Amino acid sequence: MRYQFIAAQGGQHKVHQMCRVLRVSPSGYYAWQTRPESQRTQANQVLLVRIKEEYQRSQKTYGSPRIHAALRRKGVVCNRKRVARLMHLAGIAGKKAHRRAPQTTRPDPTARSAPNLLNQDFSSLAPNQKWVVDLTYIDTAEGWLFLAIVLDLYSRQVVGWAMDQRKQTSLVEAALRMALRKREPAPSLLHHSDQGSEYTSRDYQSVLTDHHCQVSMSRTGNCFDNATMESFFSTLKTECAHHQFASRAEARRVLFEYIEGWYNRQRLHSALGYRSPVEFELISRH
Question: Which helix (H) or strand (E) holds 243?
Answer without folding.
Answer: none
